[in-house]
Amino acid sequence: MKKLLEVFLGVLTAIGGFVDIGELVANSEAGARYGLALLWPVLLGLVVILLYAEMAGRIATLSQRPVFDLVRERMGERAALLNMLGSVAVNLLTMTAEIAGVALSIQLATDVSYLLLLPLIAFAVWLVVWRVKFSTLENVVGIAGLALFVFVVAIWKMHPDYHTLLSGATHPTVPHGEGHPTYFYWAIAVFGGTIMPYELFFFSSGAVEERWTRRDLSLNRVNVFFGFPVGAVVSIAIMTAAALVLRPAGISVGHLDQAALPVALQLGKVGFAFVLVGFFAALFGASLETVLSNGYVVSQYFGWSWGKLVSPRRAPRFHVVLLISVVAATALALTGIDPVKITEYSIVFSAVVLPLTYFPVLLVANDPTYVGDKTNSRLANALAVAMLIVVTVAGLAAIPLMIATKGGA
Amino acid sequence: MAPVGGRYAAFPPARGGEPRCSVRRLRWCSTLLVATIGLGCVGPARNTTNYRLKARNSAKAAASAVATSQLAATLVRHDDAPWPYVAVVLDSAERDASSVESTFGSIQPPNPRSDHLRDALGHVLNDAVDTISKMRIAARRDARRELLDAAQNLPRVARELRAYQDLSA
Amino acid sequence: MTAQADHLIDAGLLLLDRQVVDCNERQVAKVDDLEIAFDADGRPYVIAILCGPGAYGPRLRGRIGRWVIAIWRRLHPAVDPEPARIPMTAVTKIDSAVHLSVPRTATAAIVLDRWAEEHIVARIPGAGKGEA
After folding, report:
1. How would CATH label the architecture of C11-123?
2. Domain count of chain A?
3. Angle CA(A220)–CA(C97)–CA(B10) in degrees, nearest 5?
């Protein structure tokens, strides 16, 4: 039973990581614009995150070293400092969008302007990271996030022509009137959305905090190989629903409210209620993960004591970072800047930071000092190197494409 | 006794030196970010082709807002969603449409021949914003009848916008 | 480098930038720098771990490094401050981390932690218990 509950660490990371505001909107937009021609970046992202989350979890389990410890050890104080600053910046942007997203999801139910709700949400997020026990949080958010499976139900009820859908996914073509650069910009946005850097920080730090030991290695596998695919299914379902409903109508998605349209049209008020719960849980989970990740990254870079299982007074600088992060993200969100645009930018910029984080993980996963006899298999190494190349290429292409396509316009 | 920095030769760190320009590169990136965000704005149209292209894109963006409103009307017709949600959907569709209208309106037509296109499309865009506004107002008053009445205008607006989406450049 | 002595290590790879943890597996600091001494044959020995801004700043080099040192000097209560120092005699094991035989409260590396605790965190309700 305890094992079953612990799987929720993976589910929480996956729901909050795969499915955050950027995902909800970027995948809806990708589906509305390209049908399932952008399914492959989701699957590619899934392979990347499976490989690297498993490695990071294994390293954390066997050596008690979370990801950013590895970054600092392997890249030295200067390169790691740049990575740290970059990750914190990306995290802050993401956090801003997630907190605004939570407020937006409440706006969907109440029609109260999200700007008014923001301070309240921000306070709730801070209160949770300040006081609430980790396991409570995982279970509540993990279970509530599963409400997003309503997208799968909605698709099933639409009785779509699965054959056409599948051939659209396996033979991706750029629709008439759309340029290739724009297509690849959206491919990177979808790909980057599935492998946001905070997922690794959060997952490996969680494993260290829960004091996983050698016996928990199988738990790590189950978490990764169950949790992340669950997130991927939801994220593919969101894309498919948009492809089935919004694409024929010629709608381009720019707001969170549009992402809920397919379900409401198909399943009515009950379906809509599930969407709301799912949005709220996924976005609240993502807010917590990004806030905590900022604390993890900074504390682990400097070697400060960190963690949610010790009292705040025992990890004071960690909690100072959390507090500053929440305040900064809220202030940024209160400027009224479009949360959807902000996530799109943060996804693209994260693609730039990612290789610097993945590389040390790959190195250490082959170092017996850390993982003993559990080093990577040849196959895992080959795949991981290939994926690192993919991530690097995506990272290099991200900013030029963003400029060339004016942000995927 | 001496501290072993990177400088001190006794225990040089195993990894190579850092590229000196990394901080400068960061600064360069932030400049790019600012430039990218700036690029989102619409510039003047250089010639007729360019203007027609911009008209086509504006019609396409407005059509998306109109289609969204049509789906919102469907929700209301079947009583499939709570009023606040319908109001939020219409509110953002209205903001999208009116931002398209004002952006298109502010583009300088390249020559007098383009004025006709500007007036005609401007009229349709205005019609779209008006219709969606009426629907949004009705939604905030929970007025089902008025909302559906206003929505009857949407298919016509959508049809007119479609004509501009097929505009050859 | 041949294996002529058991304790010959590549300090740059094995020690620098590692996490230091105390006897309760709690984080103390990073190995920001090392203090070495030479024996009669001129062979170097690591005698202490240096940590905190005073040790970290010089390694950063460049303008940012100078800023770190300058701010640290200005804010440090001592006139001519020294970086926090953990003697190698307190180290019991070096693996993926540097393990100490003492609790973190017995080291000089957590001065800033203490400051943040007293001045910020402890003032917020619900901060919980501090360390003994």
Report:
1. Roll (2.30)
2. 1
3. 140
